[in-house]
Design a protein that fits this description.
Blueprint lengths: L6 H15 L4 H18 L7 H10 L3 H6 L3 H6 L3 H13 L1 E4 L2 E4 L2 H11 L14 H15 L12 H14 L1
Antiparallel strand pairs: 1-2
Length: 174
Amino acid sequence: PVSPPSEEEIRKLVQSAIIFSGSKNTTARNLGYMILSICQISLGEEFAGLKNVFALALGRSGNFAALNLLGQAEATLGGSSSLLLIDHVDRRQKNTVTAAGSDFILTDWQLRVWSALKGRHSMAVTAPTSAGKSYVLINYLVDHVTRSEEAAVSYIVPTRALITEISEKITERA
């Protein structure tokens, strides 16, 4: 039988995940995100002392969606040192964009896509399901169309089901 990891082993794993999540290599960065998310979900109260470490790591990685999904944003950071809170708020602010009058917090990956779109760069975007490809594109398109008097947009999707889904999302945002 395998014994559960010690707090020291978990701390080393999280430190490694922080290093991976800061990498320029997409595979390493995604591995870091996965390790942090899995640790946060699976360790529970047994390692409650590491909650601030998880929150800091997810915040520094720019993965605010995961941080919010896990309910750690203000709840965990509220009882933390002011430096940890300042670090989180600063990073969150840097990843916030305004589109069509609303603020959106993006992950680092989404922010890079957003910046490329704003710079009018041609691109092909591939990312795993639920990475936020449509989220970024829809918000950018709605922002672009609302700012332009003569805008035309073609949004190509591979299935009929997605036609309905994307149309509904665009209508909700417009």
